[in-house]
Each structure stands twice: as C-alpha cells, then as structure tokens.
C-alpha cells in the first residue's frame, strides 16, 4: 500500500523535484540518467509509464487519493504520495490542482538519432525552437498527424521540460525523438548530412521567392522526407535553407505572411505525412 504523506509546508525533502529544483537541475546535465521529469495528469503519467519511465513520487490533493487517482496509486503502491490542502498546493504549483496529479519520474534515456532515422519515413526537424509551449504543441501535432519522429538541433528546448510535457499531453513519451548533435557546430551541416545519409530529402519551411507550395506533389512522392522548422520569430537560418533540398511555404491569405511555428507544423504535418 502506498505511503500517504500529509504535508503542512514545503520543507519535506521528498518535495524537492516539485519545489526546489530548477529545470536544469531536473535535467541533471552532468548525469542525465539521474534526471527527473514531472508528469502532470493521469493521461500524461500513463503515457510516461508506458514509455518505461520510473516513478519516484506523486503529489495531489487529498480528494484525488480515493477519487480519480485511486487506480494509479494502487498500481504504483511502492512510491510515496504527498498530499495537502488545495490552498497549500496552489501555492506550490501556481494553480489549483483541479485536474492535477503530479508524478516525479526518472528521466528516460536519450534515443539514438541514427537508429530513429533508420526506421522512419517522415520526421520533423526543429532548429532553435526554444519556447516549451511550441515544442509541446509540435510534438502533439506530430503524434496526431502521422510523423514518425522529431529531431532537434542542439539549441532547441528540452522536450521533457515540465511545460512542454504538459502542452504535449504526454506525446513526448509516445513519439521517438533525439538531438542531431550536442554542440552548436553540429548543426546545420553535420545534422543535414546525417539526414541525407539515411536517404531523407529535406524540406525547409521558410518564406522564399523560390519556395514551392506545401501541397506540391513532388513532396508527397518522396519516400523519406524531413520537415525542417525554424525558431520563433526569425525562422530558419539562411545557411539551413540553402542546404535543404526544398524550400516550402504554406499559402497565406489576407496579407498574413506566416503562421506561428506550432500552427505551421500542424499544417505541414497534415499535408506531408500523407503519402
């Protein structure tokens, strides 16, 4: 049976992942295998468990213990469950846990990019996307719309940041992902070369006079296609665009020049994942 720990303040050492550790500390950059990810909501926790994440503890309002969380508590009976008043937990999380059950979990090991590419046909590649909300939304669209995997350049936001996990609705645990290198110098030349070595054609989503439409049939005919999306605001670097096989635009109306990167990814995935 799970140990239920009623807290009156945030001093308990078991609350460190929820209270005192920064995002960088949760990632445990020096020892990634010791890193921690926070999963929020039963749905996200289940996805994380299915992906092999090791649960460490849970935090929830007391009413959830015999309510919606009863099943997951019984399943994870060997880990502590921290609980407190709604007012106290709202101070901790910044919002009332109306749907909230938090679970601190051991971070899963990083996948190998080459192994992912060997078995994929449609992948998303993110360059410099640093907003966790956008990263989470892109993962959710990728999972929903048939993208096989997500690859990130070395500067992209960590997909297992708490907000990215929450916005993705747990799809960061469902869809394979990896980084194309660990240093800024690994992108774009080395990363794009890896994609080409695995037989991928690369499609840069960017505004350019020479761009083709996202519904151009040449793109659909490619057996392996990497959809390359750039940072919020500036978009893809010119060197990246020049090195890609295609430059692709989503046709706009009413004088709008482009979409937010998360919205653009959903349109591109819908069109380009269909073959």
How would you characterize the overall build of this protein?
The protein has 13 helices and twelve strands. It has 275 residues and is an alpha/beta fold. The mean pLDDT is 90. The chain is elongated.
In total, how many beta strands? 12
Helix % is 25-40%
> Mind telling me the C-alpha Rg?
21 Å
- Runs in which pLDDT lies below 50 for 5 or more consecutive residues are none
Structural class, from helix and strand content? alpha/beta
What brief labels describe this structure?
275 residues, alpha/beta, five-stranded mixed beta sheet
Break the fold down into its secondary structure elements and pairings.
Layout: E1 4-6, H1 16-19, H2 23-27, E2 36-40, H3 42-50, E3 54-61, H4 62-65, H5 70-75, E4 81-84, H6 86-93, E5 101-106, H7 113-118, E6 122-126, H8 132-144, E7 149-152, H9 162-168, E8 177-179, H10 189-197, E9 201-205, E10 212-213, H11 217-221, E11 225-229, H12 238-243, E12 246-249, H13 261-272
In short:
With 275 residues, the protein is of the alpha/beta class. Helix content is 34%, strand content 20%.
